[in-house]
Amino acid sequence: MQQLKDWSDANPGHFPVFITMEVKGSADQLKADTSLTEPEALIPKTFDQLDSALRAGLGDDKLITPDLVRGDAATLNEAVIANGWPKLSEAAGRFAFILDDGGAKRDLYMQGHPSLKGRVLFARAEPGIPEAAALILNNPEDEQIPELVKQGYLVRTRADANTIEARANDYTHFEKACQSGAQIITTDYYQPSQFFGSPYHIVFADSTYVRVNPLFK
User: Fold this and answer.
1) What is the pLDDT of residue 157?
2) Model confidence over 177-200: pLDDT tens digits?
3) Is 96 helix (H, G, I), strand (E, B) or coil?
């Protein structure tokens, strides 16, 4: 957090930075390998501590939170459908965190926080429920993405996964992701890999990592 804050302070007015987080609290692997250390069970206090650490590390003035996006709307979902996300000028210099976990972990994070009131992270929620604002759709060919973006949701998709595209120097999924209008396209290769003889790396045509969304040109 200190490194992020120092960088942000040194680059005032930078584009908003989106960070996805996965919480590791599953004991499933223990069934296959009993030598592994059993992880602590996730409880609401775990997530409270995570939120506190993010606030303490960056400060509220550097965060895009569900409360900020919801404003005076009844629910977070209603806010993004009616008003969209904050304008770029309002989001400049800030960070937004998205919980990339579904199921029980996601539900535990939302527990006691309707519309994510008081939370720091945006949850991986299904469209239409009160907590929905940021969606994670890993398949860039998912035909829902353009419509969901036009409705007001923030969508994260992927250009590559499991080293497949990098090994084959295949930009098909990246091109689909660009066409989809998803606001966040993640990649494991913002620079070429050192492990295979492939030049594969992800950058927009003007050699930058930010562009105007093609759905709204």
Assistant:
1) 97
2) 999 999 999 999 999 999 988 999
3) strand
| Sign of the alpha-carbon torsion through 57, 186, 91, 147 | negative
Distance between start and end Cα atoms, the chain: 35
Q: Check if the beta carbon of residue 96 is closer than 8 Å to that of residue 69.
A: no
Question: CA-CA distance, 160 to 100, in Å (whole number)?
Answer: 16
Residue 91 pLDDT more than 80? yes
List, edge to edge, every strand of the sheet that includes 134-136.
Answer: 134-136, 154-158, 184-186
Structure tokens at 125: 């929620």
At how many degrees (to 10) do helices 44-58 and 103-110 cross? 70
Cβ distance 95 to 58 under 8 Å?
A: yes
Q: Are 119 and 97 in contact (CB under 8 A)?
A: no
Looking at residue 217, its pLDDT comes to 79
What gap in Å lies between CA 10 and CA 13, rounded to an integer? 10
Please give the angle made by the CA atoms of 156, 81 and 158, to the nearest 5 degrees.
5
120 vs 28: which has the higher pLDDT: 120
> What number of other Cβ atoms are within 10 A of residue 1's Cβ?
14
82 and 16 in contact (C-beta within 8 Å)? no
Give CA 128 to chain center in angstroms.
18
Instruction: Summarize pLDDT for 17-42 with one digit per residue, the tens.
Output: 999 999 876 666 666 677 777 777 88
